[in-house]
Amino acid sequence: MDALFERLDWLYAGLAVLVVLIPVARFRALGAAGLSLVLLAAASDRIGGASSGTTFATVNEVLTVLGGLVVVAAAVVAMTGGRRASETSSGPVVSQSPVPSFQPLLLIGLALAAAAPHLLLVELGIVLVLVAAARAALASRRFRWLVLLVIGGGALGATLVLAVTILGPTGGRMSALRDGPFSPAAERLLVLLLGTGTLLLAGLPPVHRAPWGIGLAPLAAIMMGRVALPAFPGGVIEWQPLAMLLLAGAGVWAALTRRWPALAVAAGLTSLWSGVPSGVLAAQLLVIWGWLLANSAGLRRGALPNAADRWTRFALLVPALAALPALEAGLGAQVVLSVAFVAGTIIAFAVEFLRPGGDQAPLY
Question: Could you give the number of structural domains in the chain?
Answer without folding.
Answer: 2
